[in-house]
Amino acid sequence: MIDTSFLGRFQPLDKIYCYDVFSQGFNGWMTLMPNFTQAPDFDTRESIVVKHQWPPVMLSSATYRYPGTHGALSGTYSLKLSTRPIVSPYDEMPIPGSMGHAIKRLSFYHSKRSRLQFEMWFSYTAEQDRVSSTEDLGGLSENSLRAFGMGFDLQERGNRAFAGVRYVNAIDGKPHRRWQYIYPAEVSDSDWAYGTEGDWCKRGVDPLWYGRRYPDGRHDGFQYVPDGEQQLCYNETDCKINWLYFRFLLDVQKREYIEFQAQDKTFDLRGIPVFPISAYARIEGLLNPLIWVENDAARRVFFYVDSVVISQD
To answer: Which of 73, 172, 308, 311 has most Cβ atoms within 10 angstroms of its Cβ?
Structure first.
């Protein structure tokens, strides 16, 4: 049953697909696994992206060395995404293990749909395994997290589309603090795959890890949100978690962005189209919400999700 006292933290549309409180379990969220489909022994298709090094999602009570257990906004456990303690420079392809990813596999069930919305309460921090500098607050480590994002992988009416936003927190150790939305640059399929010929992925698909990156923060898979600068609440140590609200609203009928909200700030994206991609086989009606995190230093970073609501009207 949906606890209406908890639901008051959200602003759902008329029809609720799912209300996931992770203190009650995984609710179907998992890491993105390789496609074990190739003969003769369930091998994976050759690709420049190596998915089997991504850390698995887990349920976490957010235990730290000093205070013990932090817990979650809604109870004891939250969904935890993490990275391995490895990193590449921003303008290079992300190396295996430098990103964490969570996905839930849904499909459209209501034909008269107009808008689709993703909401969640989240937090993030870096592992306090070292002091980053001799300056004041040298152990803050906020700039060890490069980026995080959320959105949808959709397929309907003969097209696939990725729609969502990401927060670029830091670039090679320097603060950036700007939002971007998913939309691919005018590049070839080869450039989309970092100059690789014949990779399975096409322009616009999986912008989380495909698409060239540039030293100033630009990315061939994303565009900057107008007036998209924002300083999020990040406290001084890894045991001081502040839960943040996020909401992303999409017009699936017009295939356009509408808006998203982070904390108490709403960003207007009306009229920005969602890039259509030729449909893939067997996945008509796909509605997969996505969450990901990426580090900016050779240390683990953690992204916590207390609860998620997916809704439509």
So the answer is: 308
CB 212 within 8 A of CB 89: no
9: exposed, middle or buried (C-beta count within 10 Å: 0-12, 13-18, 19+)? middle
The per-residue pLDDT for range 188-226, each reduced to its tens digit, is 999 999 988 888 789 999 999 999 999 999 999 999 999
- Give burial (CB, 10 Å; 0-12/13-18/19+) of 111: exposed
DSSP character for 130?
A: S
Residue 152's pLDDT is what?
98
* Dist CA 190 CA 192 (whole Å): 5
Token pair in block for residue 224: 């900057």
Q: Per-residue DSSP letters for 15-81?
A: EEEEEEEGGG--TT-BPPPP-EEETTTTEE---S--GGGSPPPEEE--EETTTEE---SSSS-EEEE
Residue 162 in tokens: 């990725």
